[in-house]
Design goal:
The protein is mainly alpha-helical. The chain has 3 domains: about 30 residues; about 80 residues, no CATH class; about 100 residues, no CATH class. The protein is about 65% helix and about 0% strand.
């Protein structure tokens, strides 16, 4: 975004970009080095994507009620990867422990790579259907595809509570409407809107590539609160300026001062006794 700021010269933009890169490297480098030393397979920040891809790309999520969501039955290691004699009625923690035993000398990074390949293989085998699923994910995260089911999933899977999930969805719709209005106001005022647009694009891309889940939308929700404040402030200013809306221009400060001075001079020049 720094490179797209027109008010800054290119030298200043590049300086800010380098400074941001250095600051990022200082913060995350210790964690990256720790991960590279700790795991058998290369891991940078995390191997979360390897857990998401197989759960988001399987038969359960490509059709049926969980279209565009995720399914724990598709995770790796799953009960299907573990001998039934060892775990006939698996608990999730037991599955994880025995799954690592199933890998032999492998660690979590090895399991992550296997899960990653499973998810990618499933996508490659169904490119046309994958596009439909991505659209469903985006629809879920923006609250336009099966919003009622999203309340159920947030209640059961995410543990938010039905009342909280319901109120949250209603408030989100209100913030979305106000946020769009606030974005228009900022645009008309020539205020940069790229930070807010970037949040929306980032969330949309994340949902399309991963899962259409409510908590992935939280960065946008924060931006919507700011934009809603802008819209409410603009509406309040509009209500407080009725004469300006009717087309009658407000007198300038100098005109009001001149009119006041003329009135005072007229009163001073009035003859004594003329009121009688």
């Amino acid at each position: 975004m720094v490179l797209l700021v027109p008010a800054l010269p290119w030298k200043r933009r590049l300086t800010l970009l380098v400074a941001a890169g250095v600051a990022y490297a200082v913060v995350v480098s210790p964690w990256i080095l720790h991960n590279l030393h700790r795991f058998q397979e290369p891991v940078l920040l995390s191997y979360g994507a390897a857990g998401v891809l197989p759960q988001a790309n399987c038969d359960d999520t490509y059709d049926g009620p969980l279209l565009g969501y995720w399914s724990g039955r598709c995770a790796f290691p799953s009960p299907d990867d573990i001998p039934e004699t060892r775990n006939p009625d698996p608990d999730l923690e037991v599955v994880a422990e025995e799954g690592l035993e199933f890998l032999g000398d492998g660690d979590e990074s090895v399991a992550a790579n296997i899960g990653l390949e499973r998810g990618l293989d499933y996508i490659r085998a169904r490119p046309g259907r994958a596009a439909v699923v991505s659209a469903a994910r985006v629809g879920r995260i923006w609250g336009v595809y099966r919003p009622g089911q999203s309340i159920d999933l947030d209640t059961v899977v995410e543990g938010r509570g039905r009342a909280v999930a319901t109120v949250g969805l209603v408030v989100y719709y209100e913030l979305l409407a106000l946020g769009i209005a606030g974005l228009v106001v900022l645009r008309r005022r020539s205020v940069p809107i790229l930070p807010f647009v970037s949040l929306a694009l980032l969330v949309t891309f994340t949902a399309a590539a991963a899962i259409g889940i409510t908590r992935y939308r939280y960065p946008v929700d924060l931006g919507l609160v700011i934009l809603a404040g802008v819209a409410l402030d603009a509406g309040w200013r509009w209500v407080r300026a009725p004469r300006r809306r009717s087309g009658t221009p407000r007198p300038r400060q100098s005109e009001r001062s001149d009119a006041g001075a003329a009135g005072a001079a007229g009163r001073d020049a009035q003859p004594v006794g003329s009121a009688g």
